[in-house]
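Chain A, query sequence.
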Amino acid sequence: MTPPAAQRIAFLGCGSMNESILAGLLAAGLDPALVTATVRSPARAAELAERHGVRTLATADDDAGNLTAVQDADVVVLGVKPVGIVPLAREIAPALKPSAVVVSVAAAVSLAMIEAALPEGQPVIRSMPNTPSRLGRGVLSISAGSTAGPDLMAQARDLLRPAGTVVEIPEDQVDALSAVSGSGPAYAFFLAEAMAAAGVELGLDADLATLIARETVAGAGFMLAEEGADAAGLRRAVTSPNGTTQAAIETFEARGLAGVVADGARAATARAAEITRELASPPSS
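Chain A, predicted structure.
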């Protein structure tokens, strides 16, 4: 795997998503000396510095921490909660280099909202990653802002590729993608929980049921990724006619499991759109 280009990167906010991207880039060879991360808590800053060897700033101790982090950065990754993205963009606007690319990994915050908070012409890219990015097995979308041309999008793709599979999509598809890939790991974890609970109900020891459910879901995901087959093809390959697996699959189909998953994804998409409307039109004071 080719290490990321030698660009200075600032991660503003380093919760699970931003740390996942950071870990993936470092694992691919990014020099920790090129990274600055900001978090609110001094304890969290110390934890990140020890774990990843990067420069960290605790904004609770330093009101100018975010400004310090971005002043020499080539790429600035905004990783705070959605409600904080626009205020953060306004905060760092005076310190950004005109060529710095601002990448937002927050759900529900549109490119237009971010661009309006930054200097005119500042390149902005919206990305929607997921947590397996920390293992280099994530899915990360990129969508171009009004001044992010093909060259910058190619750079963003190269930068993020060590964290997983990078797909370029129009912004109006971000909520749909997030409903599948952004929230998707939680769906897989929920399935593992349900499988373990079923094992316990059938008489297995709880620890054993948890172990075999976890490893089965992980192994199936590995097969999907490594064997290059589609999910339906792999399912058919392990479903013998009139066998035990077919009995289970027929039960899932009869109970409408596929429809339940689709309903969940639609609910996630609708909630993202609702949050966008709330952030775009904050309540008047």
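The mean pLDDT is 92. The chain has twelve helices and eight strands.
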